[in-house]
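Example 3.
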Amino acid sequence: MPRILEGDLVDRGGRYSIVASRFNDFITARLLDGALDALRRHGVPDAAITVVWVPGAFELPIVCRRLVASGNYDSVIALGAVIRGSTAHFDYVAGEAAKGVAAAGGGNVPVIFGVLTTDTIEQAVERAGSKMGNKGGEAAVTAIEMVNLLREVG
Ligand code: INI
């Protein structure tokens, strides 16, 4: 039998930070609700959760990097909503957010990408606690799994 390593979803004292962007906060506040609900329901106490607000998705990477560098967190969860209809520079904002968040996760701390990039407001609403679930909650569950997996991998 091969040795199989997998992260489970049981909190064992992980320290979680969430960076949420205020732009389109009618969506990102729902993503944050979903993330907090998921963390709490998996046993993470509020004392182990830090939430940081940034102006927009473009500003997520710098704060993700700071949180990683602080050494105070086992995972960083980036939440945002970039909606094509609301900007001519959708591709720049979405692209830089994705690239920057990915780069922040290039070290030892998992940085989770919970940024919606949608063509319409309706698609964003569907992914923020309605038809298609809550991507903030999914991001938080992914964070727990990655924290536990990296402990297994060593
Ligand atoms: N920021 C978002 O998070 N989502 C958007 O849809 C968006 N639009 O549409 O422009 C957006 N723009 C702001 C951007 O993230 C920066 O805050 C701003 O450009 C200042 O750097």
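The two ends are 20 Å apart (CA to CA). Residues 21, 23-24, 55-59, 80-83, 86-87, 93 surround INI (CB under 6 Å).
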